[in-house]
Amino acid sequence: MTAIRLDAVSKVFEGEHLAVDELSLEIGDGEFMVLLGPSGCGKTTLLRMIAGLERVTAGEVWFGRTNGTRLPPRDRQVAMVFQTGALYPNRTVQENIMFPLQIAGQDDAQAGSTAVGLAQVLSIDSVLDRMPRTLSGGQRQRVAIGRALVRRPRVFLLDEPLSNLDATMRTELRQEIGAMTRDLNVTTLYVTHDQVEALTLADRIAVMRDGRIEDVGTPTQVYNDPATAFVAGFLGTPRINLMSATVRVTAHHRVSLDLGTQSIHLDPTDRRSLILRHHDGAQVIVGARSSAFSLITDQDTANRLTGTIRAFEFHGQQSIAFVHCGIEVVDPDKVGRTTPSHASHDGTHGAGGTPSILTRLRTKLARRPPTALPEFHGPATHRRADLVVELPVETELTPGTRIHLALDTTRIHIFDQTGHRVDRLTR
């Protein structure tokens, strides 16, 4: 096992497609790090650069004290499991697992014994003599994991290994992967777009977007204390409510957040109130998870929002209400999505010189006009609800019902217009 350090790593593909943009990240010795993000954000490309399967355009990849940026894959002591498993179709399960040891020079008897022992750990010892085409998806992935781990790599890379499995198998294999990698104490980097996998497996999560890291922290940190509006929106089911607001400050320095048709008020001792009272009229984004609201009957309650039920869903352990309050909602996927920042260097960087191509590409991207989205002008009854609210399971409401909601302002996040927090993270 070993620590990994990515130092301002970039990847530009043919056609000037910037896939990874000066990304820096450290993964500790024996740590289980999850790269989480939407499709196309660069997480698989980053994994392949660590494995040596993609050439680094700029920056450096370090394994402990060794600069591995230009090392060939065979010299990195890295094992990788792909989404499809990718087994040798003409070899049995045992022969697939044994193969890396045989290539390394081990005799067949020793390699076979090691393969059998690992197969028992992976619960595939009953299929050692079968061919890959006869296996289920879960079994094939177990074999792929066994083949990757059999030679005890320093670094274990997994690229969406559970995405092709059914829900039951995903849960079962997810637990096994977490337990096994920790038992082996191998440094692990796991790529997924599934927040459940990230939250349940990771020691730390690195959330990616557009080739960059948006946030890094433990699962509880990135969920409860997100650095950006995008991170807040990407994690959590139902998705967090993001509302456009204007800061209003009274003559007595009391701060309220004007949501257009309604307002919420911050406690004078709230650290965010102390920050925002100097920014009267500023535009901000208020984030509130569905659990931060509660149904009330007292219309005199502070921080009360009033709205109309658009839809109501029973989810077994909870009920979800979709409420229209006349509030402007914000799409977290669009917040802060500007062109890449200018290069912090002027021409040489990392392995083999830097890429004036990065500077040229950023200049090119900066000149592109934003794409205008069509506006929706349908009837009010068909408009998307402003808020998604979690209610007790015994609650029963029908569409069209007028309701009052109390918002716990100690549980809201406030972001500026670029999507960054207005206050410091509490980590």
UniProtKB/TrEMBL annotation:
Pfam families per record: ABC_tran
Alphabetically ordered keywords of this record: ATP-binding, Nucleotide-binding, Sugar transport, Transport
Cross-referenced SMART domains: AAA
Organism placement in taxonomy: Bacteria, Bacillati, Actinomycetota, Actinomycetes, Propionibacteriales
GO molecular function (one): ABC-type transporter activity
Record keyword Ribonucleoprotein present: no
Signal peptide: none
Entry-linked InterPro entries: AAA+_ATPase, ABC_transporter-like_ATP-bd, ABC_transporter-like_CS, ABC_transpr_MalK/UgpC-like, Mo/tungstate-bd_C_term_dom, P-loop_NTPase
Gene3D superfamilies, per database record: 2.40.50.100, P-loop containing nucleotide triphosphate hydrolases
Protein name per Swiss-Prot or TrEMBL: Multiple sugar transport system ATP-binding protein
Superkingdom, natural source: Bacteria
Region: Disordered, residue numbers: 336-356
Limits of the ABC transporter domain: 4-235
Gene Ontology CC entries for this record: ATP-binding cassette (ABC) transporter complex, substrate-binding subunit-containing
